[in-house]
Amino acid sequence: MTHYALGCPQWQDPSWNTLLPPGATPLARYSRVFGCVEGNTTFYATPTREQCAQWRSQVPDDFRFLFKFPREISHDRLLTGSETAVREFLAPLEPLADVLGPFLLQLPPNFGPEQLDNLWRFVDALPAPLTCAVEVRHPAFFEKGDAEKALNRGLRERNLARVCFDTRALFTATPESEATWEAQSRKPRLPIHLLPVDAPPVVRYIGHPDLESNRPFLTPWAERVSEWIAEGRHPYIFMHMPDNGDALALAAFWHELLGERVPELAELAINTEPPQIGLF
Protein backbone atom coordinates (compact mmCIF):
# COMPACT_ATOMS: atom_id res chain seq x y z
CA MET A 1 0.00 0.00 0.00
CA THR A 2 1.32 3.45 -0.93
CA HIS A 3 1.08 5.89 1.95
CA TYR A 4 0.02 9.06 0.15
CA ALA A 5 -3.14 11.11 -0.22
CA LEU A 6 -3.76 13.69 -2.93
CA GLY A 7 -6.56 16.23 -2.82
CA CYS A 8 -7.93 19.61 -3.81
CA PRO A 9 -9.34 22.51 -1.78
CA GLN A 10 -12.92 21.48 -2.66
CA TRP A 11 -14.75 18.47 -4.05
CA GLN A 12 -16.82 20.07 -6.76
CA ASP A 13 -16.57 22.67 -9.50
CA PRO A 14 -18.76 23.07 -12.61
CA SER A 15 -15.76 22.60 -14.89
CA TRP A 16 -15.04 19.18 -13.34
CA ASN A 17 -18.29 17.62 -14.57
CA THR A 18 -16.69 15.97 -17.61
CA LEU A 19 -13.43 15.15 -15.86
CA LEU A 20 -14.43 12.94 -12.92
CA PRO A 21 -15.83 9.39 -13.14
CA PRO A 22 -19.57 8.85 -12.71
CA GLY A 23 -21.14 8.80 -9.27
CA ALA A 24 -24.29 9.70 -7.38
CA THR A 25 -22.99 12.98 -5.94
CA PRO A 26 -20.06 15.37 -6.55
CA LEU A 27 -18.33 14.10 -3.39
CA ALA A 28 -18.79 10.46 -4.41
CA ARG A 29 -17.30 11.22 -7.84
CA TYR A 30 -14.40 13.16 -6.31
CA SER A 31 -13.60 10.46 -3.75
CA ARG A 32 -13.27 7.85 -6.49
CA VAL A 33 -10.18 9.76 -7.67
CA PHE A 34 -8.76 11.54 -4.63
CA GLY A 35 -7.83 10.36 -1.16
CA CYS A 36 -8.48 13.55 0.79
CA VAL A 37 -9.98 17.02 0.61
CA GLU A 38 -9.43 20.32 2.37
CA GLY A 39 -12.51 21.28 4.32
CA ASN A 40 -12.25 24.98 3.56
CA THR A 41 -15.99 25.57 4.00
CA THR A 42 -15.71 24.96 7.76
CA PHE A 43 -13.52 28.06 8.00
CA TYR A 44 -16.71 30.05 7.36
CA ALA A 45 -19.58 27.81 8.50
CA THR A 46 -20.03 24.57 10.42
CA PRO A 47 -21.97 21.79 8.67
CA THR A 48 -24.92 20.10 10.32
CA ARG A 49 -24.70 16.59 11.73
CA GLU A 50 -27.06 15.47 8.97
CA GLN A 51 -24.74 16.87 6.29
CA CYS A 52 -21.79 15.09 7.86
CA ALA A 53 -23.68 11.80 7.95
CA GLN A 54 -24.48 12.19 4.25
CA TRP A 55 -20.83 12.94 3.44
CA ARG A 56 -19.71 9.86 5.33
CA SER A 57 -22.01 7.66 3.26
CA GLN A 58 -20.45 8.98 0.05
CA VAL A 59 -16.75 8.27 0.67
CA PRO A 60 -14.69 5.08 1.09
CA ASP A 61 -13.18 4.13 4.42
CA ASP A 62 -9.67 5.27 3.45
CA PHE A 63 -10.76 8.78 2.42
CA ARG A 64 -9.82 11.68 4.72
CA PHE A 65 -11.38 15.09 5.39
CA LEU A 66 -8.94 17.74 6.62
CA PHE A 67 -11.27 20.40 7.98
CA LYS A 68 -10.17 23.92 8.84
CA PHE A 69 -10.97 25.26 12.26
CA PRO A 70 -13.51 28.08 12.00
CA ARG A 71 -12.33 31.63 11.47
CA GLU A 72 -13.98 32.65 14.73
CA ILE A 73 -11.56 30.39 16.62
CA SER A 74 -8.31 30.96 14.74
CA HIS A 75 -8.62 34.54 13.51
CA ASP A 76 -11.19 36.38 15.62
CA ARG A 77 -10.28 34.89 19.01
CA LEU A 78 -6.63 34.00 18.23
CA LEU A 79 -7.30 30.66 19.98
CA THR A 80 -8.35 32.22 23.31
CA GLY A 81 -11.64 31.65 25.10
CA SER A 82 -12.75 29.23 22.42
CA GLU A 83 -13.60 26.11 24.42
CA THR A 84 -17.34 26.39 23.72
CA ALA A 85 -16.78 27.26 20.06
CA VAL A 86 -14.52 24.21 19.63
CA ARG A 87 -17.12 21.89 21.18
CA GLU A 88 -19.85 23.34 18.97
CA PHE A 89 -17.64 22.86 15.94
CA LEU A 90 -16.59 19.29 16.69
CA ALA A 91 -19.98 17.90 17.78
CA PRO A 92 -21.65 17.86 14.31
CA LEU A 93 -18.57 16.21 12.78
CA GLU A 94 -18.99 13.06 14.90
CA PRO A 95 -20.45 10.96 12.01
CA LEU A 96 -17.14 11.53 10.19
CA ALA A 97 -14.95 10.44 13.12
CA ASP A 98 -13.37 7.50 11.30
CA VAL A 99 -12.50 9.51 8.17
CA LEU A 100 -11.04 12.62 9.77
CA GLY A 101 -7.46 13.50 8.99
CA PRO A 102 -5.62 16.14 11.00
CA PHE A 103 -7.52 19.39 11.32
CA LEU A 104 -6.01 22.37 9.54
CA LEU A 105 -5.25 25.17 11.98
CA GLN A 106 -4.56 28.17 9.74
CA LEU A 107 -3.34 31.11 11.79
CA PRO A 108 -3.53 34.73 10.58
CA PRO A 109 -0.55 37.03 9.92
CA ASN A 110 -1.16 38.83 13.22
CA PHE A 111 -0.75 35.60 15.21
CA GLY A 112 2.86 36.14 16.24
CA PRO A 113 5.41 34.97 18.80
CA GLU A 114 3.54 36.60 21.67
CA GLN A 115 0.54 34.32 20.96
CA LEU A 116 2.45 31.02 21.02
CA ASP A 117 1.18 30.15 24.49
CA ASN A 118 -2.35 30.40 23.07
CA LEU A 119 -1.41 27.80 20.48
CA TRP A 120 0.02 25.35 23.00
CA ARG A 121 -2.98 25.66 25.32
CA PHE A 122 -5.33 25.18 22.37
CA VAL A 123 -3.73 22.07 20.88
CA ASP A 124 -3.09 20.51 24.30
CA ALA A 125 -6.81 20.80 25.06
CA LEU A 126 -8.01 19.05 21.89
CA PRO A 127 -9.84 15.83 22.75
CA ALA A 128 -7.92 12.68 21.80
CA PRO A 129 -7.46 11.27 19.23
CA LEU A 130 -8.02 14.51 17.30
CA THR A 131 -4.93 16.33 16.15
CA CYS A 132 -4.06 19.18 13.82
CA ALA A 133 -1.49 20.52 11.40
CA VAL A 134 -0.47 24.13 12.02
CA GLU A 135 -0.05 26.79 9.35
CA VAL A 136 1.58 30.06 10.42
CA ARG A 137 1.85 33.28 8.42
CA HIS A 138 3.60 35.75 10.72
CA PRO A 139 7.00 36.71 9.19
CA ALA A 140 8.82 36.08 12.49
CA PHE A 141 8.14 32.36 12.12
CA PHE A 142 10.18 32.28 8.90
CA GLU A 143 13.29 34.19 10.03
CA LYS A 144 15.12 31.25 11.70
CA GLY A 145 15.37 33.26 14.93
CA ASP A 146 14.09 32.66 18.45
CA ALA A 147 10.43 32.89 17.43
CA GLU A 148 10.72 30.17 14.79
CA LYS A 149 12.82 28.00 17.08
CA ALA A 150 10.17 28.26 19.80
CA LEU A 151 7.42 27.40 17.32
CA ASN A 152 9.26 24.41 15.91
CA ARG A 153 10.27 23.16 19.36
CA GLY A 154 6.66 23.22 20.55
CA LEU A 155 5.43 21.45 17.42
CA ARG A 156 8.10 18.76 17.75
CA GLU A 157 7.26 18.18 21.41
CA ARG A 158 3.64 17.57 20.42
CA ASN A 159 4.43 15.76 17.14
CA LEU A 160 2.39 18.25 15.12
CA ALA A 161 3.05 18.91 11.45
CA ARG A 162 3.89 22.40 10.26
CA VAL A 163 1.89 22.97 7.06
CA CYS A 164 3.98 23.87 4.00
CA PHE A 165 2.01 26.45 2.03
CA ASP A 166 3.88 26.86 -1.25
CA THR A 167 2.86 29.94 -3.25
CA ARG A 168 6.12 30.46 -5.12
CA ALA A 169 4.82 29.42 -8.53
CA LEU A 170 1.75 31.61 -8.12
CA PHE A 171 3.86 34.72 -7.61
CA THR A 172 5.91 34.10 -10.75
CA ALA A 173 2.74 34.46 -12.84
CA THR A 174 1.83 37.68 -14.60
CA PRO A 175 -1.60 38.60 -13.20
CA GLU A 176 -3.31 38.62 -16.59
CA SER A 177 -6.54 37.08 -15.29
CA GLU A 178 -8.76 38.26 -12.48
CA ALA A 179 -8.35 34.89 -10.74
CA THR A 180 -4.55 35.17 -10.71
CA TRP A 181 -4.64 38.79 -9.56
CA GLU A 182 -7.05 37.91 -6.75
CA ALA A 183 -5.00 34.90 -5.65
CA GLN A 184 -1.80 36.96 -5.53
CA SER A 185 -3.54 39.68 -3.54
CA ARG A 186 -4.94 37.26 -0.95
CA LYS A 187 -2.28 34.58 -0.50
CA PRO A 188 0.90 34.98 1.57
CA ARG A 189 4.32 35.21 -0.04
CA LEU A 190 6.52 33.37 2.44
CA PRO A 191 9.47 30.94 2.34
CA ILE A 192 9.06 27.17 2.52
CA HIS A 193 10.25 25.80 5.85
CA LEU A 194 10.04 22.06 6.50
CA LEU A 195 9.84 20.66 10.02
CA PRO A 196 10.80 16.99 10.41
CA VAL A 197 8.32 15.27 12.73
CA ASP A 198 6.67 11.85 12.70
CA ALA A 199 3.23 13.34 12.01
CA PRO A 200 1.97 13.08 8.41
CA PRO A 201 3.33 16.01 6.37
CA VAL A 202 0.83 18.44 4.86
CA VAL A 203 1.67 20.41 1.70
CA ARG A 204 -0.64 22.99 0.14
CA TYR A 205 0.57 24.10 -3.28
CA ILE A 206 -0.89 26.95 -5.33
CA GLY A 207 0.10 26.70 -8.94
CA HIS A 208 0.98 28.92 -11.86
CA PRO A 209 -1.98 29.02 -14.28
CA ASP A 210 0.30 27.63 -17.02
CA LEU A 211 0.80 23.95 -16.14
CA GLU A 212 4.32 23.57 -17.51
CA SER A 213 5.50 26.57 -15.48
CA ASN A 214 4.91 24.51 -12.34
CA ARG A 215 7.48 21.86 -13.25
CA PRO A 216 10.54 23.50 -11.61
CA PHE A 217 8.55 24.02 -8.40
CA LEU A 218 6.87 20.60 -8.30
CA THR A 219 9.88 18.49 -9.25
CA PRO A 220 11.65 19.01 -5.88
CA TRP A 221 8.37 18.25 -4.13
CA ALA A 222 8.10 15.00 -6.11
CA GLU A 223 11.56 14.04 -4.87
CA ARG A 224 10.67 14.87 -1.27
CA VAL A 225 7.26 13.20 -1.31
CA SER A 226 8.70 10.04 -2.88
CA GLU A 227 11.15 9.92 0.04
CA TRP A 228 8.31 10.32 2.53
CA ILE A 229 6.41 7.51 0.85
CA ALA A 230 9.49 5.25 0.93
CA GLU A 231 9.82 5.97 4.65
CA GLY A 232 6.23 4.82 5.22
CA ARG A 233 4.94 8.26 6.11
CA HIS A 234 1.53 9.47 4.91
CA PRO A 235 1.83 12.88 3.24
CA TYR A 236 -1.26 14.88 2.39
CA ILE A 237 -0.73 16.89 -0.81
CA PHE A 238 -3.24 19.50 -1.94
CA MET A 239 -3.23 21.15 -5.36
CA HIS A 240 -4.73 24.63 -5.75
CA MET A 241 -4.92 26.92 -8.75
CA PRO A 242 -5.86 30.62 -9.00
CA ASP A 243 -9.02 29.32 -10.65
CA ASN A 244 -9.70 26.02 -8.93
CA GLY A 245 -11.57 24.85 -11.98
CA ASP A 246 -8.02 24.12 -13.20
CA ALA A 247 -7.02 22.20 -10.05
CA LEU A 248 -7.69 18.76 -11.55
CA ALA A 249 -5.30 19.45 -14.42
CA LEU A 250 -2.62 20.50 -11.95
CA ALA A 251 -3.31 17.41 -9.81
CA ALA A 252 -2.88 15.17 -12.87
CA PHE A 253 0.34 16.97 -13.83
CA TRP A 254 1.71 16.57 -10.29
CA HIS A 255 0.65 12.92 -10.02
CA GLU A 256 2.49 12.13 -13.24
CA LEU A 257 5.67 13.74 -11.88
CA LEU A 258 5.38 11.75 -8.67
CA GLY A 259 4.61 8.55 -10.57
CA GLU A 260 7.96 8.82 -12.35
CA ARG A 261 9.56 8.31 -8.94
CA VAL A 262 6.96 6.00 -7.38
CA PRO A 263 6.04 3.51 -10.14
CA GLU A 264 3.52 1.64 -7.98
CA LEU A 265 1.20 4.66 -7.87
CA ALA A 266 -2.14 3.95 -9.48
CA GLU A 267 -3.15 6.19 -12.35
CA LEU A 268 -5.35 9.15 -11.52
CA ALA A 269 -8.80 8.53 -13.00
CA ILE A 270 -9.21 11.99 -14.48
CA ASN A 271 -10.41 12.42 -18.04
CA THR A 272 -7.80 14.75 -19.47
CA GLU A 273 -8.91 14.24 -23.08
CA PRO A 274 -10.97 17.09 -24.58
CA PRO A 275 -14.55 16.10 -25.44
CA GLN A 276 -15.11 15.06 -29.05
CA ILE A 277 -17.23 17.44 -31.08
CA GLY A 278 -19.68 15.82 -33.45
CA LEU A 279 -19.77 16.72 -37.11
CA PHE A 280 -23.49 17.48 -37.05
UniProtKB/TrEMBL annotation:
It holds the Pfam family DUF72. This is DUF72 domain-containing protein. PANTHER family: UNCHARACTERIZED PROTEIN YECE, UPF0759 PROTEIN YECE. Signal peptide: none annotated. The lineage of its organism: Bacteria, Pseudomonadati, Pseudomonadota, Gammaproteobacteria, Oceanospirillales. InterPro entries: DUF72, UPF0759_sf. Gene3D superfamilies: Protein of unknown function UPF0759. It comes from the Bacteria.
